[in-house]
Structure formats: C-alpha cells, structure tokens
Amino acid sequence: MLSHALNNHGTALMFRADDAGIAELIEAADVALAVDDMEDAARAYVNLVWALLDQYRLDLAERHLGRALELTERAEFIAFVIYQRMEQARLELARAHWDDALALVEELPEPPHSRCVALTVAGTVRLRRGDDGADADLGEAGRLADALDELQRRGPVAAARAEAALLRGDLAAARAIARPEFDEADRRVARALRAELAYLLVRAGDEVAIAADDEHPFAVQARGDWRRAADLWRAAGCPYHEAAALAESPDEADLLDALAILDRIGAVPLARRVRADLRDRGVRSIPRGPSSPTRRNPEGLTDRQVGVLRLLAEELTNAEIADRLVVSVRTIDSHVAAILTKLGVSTRRDAVRVAHELGLL
C-alpha cells in the first residue's frame, strides 16, 4: 500500500514538474524491493524514467533506466522489459541517435501501450530523417492512442503529427492537431507535454500563454528566447532541438551552425528548410550537405554499436562497458553479438581490427 501511494503521488508530482516526485518514486521502488515485490518496483522506475524523458533530463533518465532494466530482466518481467526498451528508444530519439532508436522498435511489440510508443518513435525518426513510412507509423500510432484514450498516448502522437504538418508548411493542420491535446495538458497541468505542444502551436502561428517561470526548453523556446533554448538543448544533449532553436535566429551565422548540426545527424527535411531560408536571405556560400550514400553507416552499425566498438577497442569487458554506458550487461551482450554478425567476425579482437580497417573508429 505504501509503495502504491508513493508511486501514484510521486508520478503526479513529476507530471507537475515537482522534483519531490523523484525521491517519492525511488522510495516507492525501495519499499517494494524490501518485500521482494518486483512488479511495483518496476512500475515506479517506469514512471520515473518516463517523466524524466518528458523533461529531457536524459542523463538522469538513463541512469535510472539502467538500474530498472537490470531488475526487470533478472526477474523476467517481460512486459516491463518491453516497455523499458521503448523508453530507451525515446532516449535515443531525443539524442538524435536515429539508428539506435529504430533498432529498439524494429520488432513492434504487441502490448498496445508499448506498441503506441514504438510507432511514435519510429514515425518521428522517419519524419526527421525524411524517410518513407512516417505518415503510416504516426497514423497507426494515432489510432492506437485514440483507442487507449489516454493523454499520455495521444499527446506525444499529436506532437509528432503537428511537427510533420509544420515541416510540410501546413500551419492550419498543425494548429488543429495540437490544440485539443494542449488544452487537456493545460487543464491537467501536465507541464512537459503542455510546453512541447505550446511551442508547436506558437510555431504554427497560434497565441498561447506561456508561464514565465516554466523552464522547460520547449517553454523557453515558445516564449521566443531561441538563444537560451538552444543552450538548454545543447546541455540536455538534444542536437535536433538545438538546431531547431538556432534556426529561429535572425543571424545567418546561427542558421549555418544549425545547418551543420542537421547535416551531421541526417535531419534532411529541416536542413532543407534552413537552406531555403539562407537562400532567401541572399547567402551565397551554403554548404551542400552530405551526399546520401555517406549518410548511412555502410556496415549497418547503429550509433550505439559504434560506441560499444570504441569501448571494445579499449579492451573493456562487457560488464565494464555496461557500467560505462549505464545499461544492463545483457544489453551490451546483444550489441556485441550484433557487431560480430554485421562485421562478419567471430571474436571481439577481430571486430576491433576490422573496424579500424574500415575507418569506423
């Protein structure tokens, strides 16, 4: 009973952006673990990580997610493991690790809540990269979210669909998609979701009141302080959002900085809009951007797998790599197995050798 109370109250605090909820959710997990109640402990961690992801406190979210995955994988709570992997996908999406995010949702899960998250992540990655399939993913996610009828599902889908409309230049559609979910988020005081939807509505030309004390990066950006928002996004480790904030600058140098970030992470549609803006301003020497064959890793390794390869090159064990990356050992085992398969080798030493030969490191 105590764990349930702490869990529900702590989660409510986190949705209101009250950090007292962090301690309550950690206590909820500890209370449950003290009586070997793994299910309630896992639920507390799931709620904590979700809220931290909403707030874009990614390093803290990753730290708690690593601990949570260790618990649920060891206890073989498959439903929680699946959902936590969807949270990992949200984390990779926020960091613009597109391939890693897609790899985590490649096999769509059956449970509807997890499936809705997976489709939202997949659709957003494809939208931001300019890949085919974004509309189909977000359309299915929207149907699932409507069936589940929870703001926690509908809101993120609406945000992604409004972003898609903005990238198409359809401001009216963006307003129509985002406004109903913003109104409900505002009524429920779901601060992080309210901030994101407010930013999208402002971009779409709507008038939205933003509290002066709301320090969420989206709220700062919605108030028009693009420079501070860019700094906040950079500190959070979110290059796509940093570039989007810089793209609002009246200074051509900032737009060129935004373009460099977008080209580096392969965010083609937004990079195209920034280039068009630069051309409209009469800028002549605009970087052409990477050619399409070089935007993908030729060996099919994800960003995270390349990172694991670098740590293999340091001769770290899987346990040491897991500790360095704050994930479970089983997750690293899976990455190493995938690396060996993709590079066509049977040992870690050979994988490092081939990676050096291919220039991957």
From TrEMBL:
<dbReference type="Pfam" id="PF00196">
    <property type="entry name" value="GerE"/>
</dbReference>
<dbReference type="InterPro" id="IPR036388">
    <property type="entry name" value="WH-like_DNA-bd_sf"/>
</dbReference>
<dbReference type="InterPro" id="IPR000792">
    <property type="entry name" value="Tscrpt_reg_LuxR_C"/>
</dbReference>
<keyword id="KW-0805">Transcription regulation</keyword>
<protein>
    <recommendedName>
        <fullName>HTH luxR-type domain-containing protein</fullName>
    </recommendedName>
</protein>
<keyword id="KW-0238">DNA-binding</keyword>
<keyword id="KW-0804">Transcription</keyword>
<feature type="domain" description="HTH luxR-type">
    <location>
        <begin position="294"/>
        <end position="359"/>
    </location>
</feature>
<dbReference type="InterPro" id="IPR011990">
    <property type="entry name" value="TPR-like_helical_dom_sf"/>
</dbReference>
<dbReference type="InterPro" id="IPR016032">
    <property type="entry name" value="Sig_transdc_resp-reg_C-effctor"/>
</dbReference>
